[in-house]
Design a protein that fits this description.
Blueprint (H helix, E strand, L loop, with lengths): L4 E9 L9 E7 L5 E10 L2 H20 L4 H5 L2 H29 L7 E2 L1 E7 L2 E7 L3 E6 L2 E4 L6 H7 L5 H5 L6 E2 L12 E6 L4 E6 L1 H4 L4 H10 L6 H11 L6 E9 L7 E8 L10 E2 L7
Helix pairs in contact: 1-3
């Protein structure tokens, strides 16, 4: 088996309308080990509040994941490493949520802030993705595009109930209304899925500043045609800005190179973290001008 090779690129852009970028992105690729991750957060709650919340989230996740490759981790079995990775990711999500809530309590001007979150980590050929809100992760390989996350949003619930099509959701007046976010309540309700990758692939993470304009067909076309693959980051941002750029746009890509084999397989290890008492929430993102 050929060794796993990972490369990463990411960028956030203010867009064409907003006065401040409330998105945050953090990308990391280890120089020696097959380990990489991307964190994307899309803040809300006013200009400064949104940027603060998304910044807290990306920093908290990065701090947890940056320290993962300890001697204890590297000496563990692959199964144990996967469990350690999952636990580290969960701890980071919970820490980010806690820090945002704590900041809101001490800074009244940030009382409405919160953020979406999507984070993807690859260790060797193991991929794990966590998300809260409507920032997304996609996987593309020569067999096609697979969306790895399901939006926590009002329109997604309507699609699931058969009350709206995906095409109608693109122009819905409630398309920016999300049902989960970091910084709303404890404990946080996050979804975590994992896969074993058996095929060279591209992993895309993005905020809804991209998916506001690019449907799955457009995303697949850009990932399939632009090379070097990591340059697709710039093509995605240009695509959204050309079509209007009404929101901030964040895009990150991990290029996973592995031996030839089968399509990435979902291993069935799907986890939804449920709070002891459900906190119902519907949050409208982007509450300031420029909606």
């Amino acid at each position: 088996m050929e060794p796993t090779r990972l490369t990463v690129n990411g960028r956030t852009d203010i867009g064409q309308v907003r006065q401040e970028n409330e998105d945050s992105i953090y990308c990391h690729c280890d120089e020696e080990k097959p380990f990489a991750f991307i964190v994307v957060a899309d803040g809300m709650g006013g200009y400064t509040g949104g940027a603060t919340a998304s910044g807290i989230a990306t920093k908290a996740l990065a701090a947890n994941l940056d320290g993962l490759l300890s001697p204890n981790f590297l000496s563990a079995s692959l199964a144990e490493q996967q469990l350690l990775l999952q636990a580290t990711l969960l701890e980071g999500v919970e820490q980010a949520n806690r820090e945002i809530i704590d900041t809101k309590q001490t800074r009244p001007e940030f009382s409405q802030m919160g953020t979406t979150l999507v984070v993807a980590v690859i260790w060797q050929n193991f991929l794990i993705v966590a998300h809260v809100g409507d920032s997304r992760a996609y996987l593309w390989n020569p067999y096609g595009l697979q969306r790895l996350t399901r939006d926590h949003s009002v329109v997604q619930e309507m699609i699931d109930a058969g009350q709206m099509t995906s095409e109608q959701a693109q122009s819905s007046q409630v398309r920016n209304h999300i049902t989960r976010a970091l910084g709303i309540a404890e404990p946080v309700e996050a979804c975590i899925n994992s896969w074993n990758l058996k095929e060279s692939a591209l992993l895309l993470l993005c905020s809804d500043g991209l998916t506001e304009y690019a449907d799955d067909h457009a995303i697949e076309r850009i990932l399939a045609t632009h090379r070097p693959a990591l340059d697709s980051v710039d093509h995605f941002i240009d695509f959204a800005n050309t079509d209007g750029g009404r929101d901030n746009i964040s895009v990150g890509i991990i290029e996973f190179c592995q031996r030839a084999g089968a399509i990435a397989e979902f291993d069935g290890n799907a986890i939804t973290l449920k709070p002891a008492q459900k906190h119902d929430v519907t949050v409208r993102k982007n509450q300031h001008s420029g909606n």
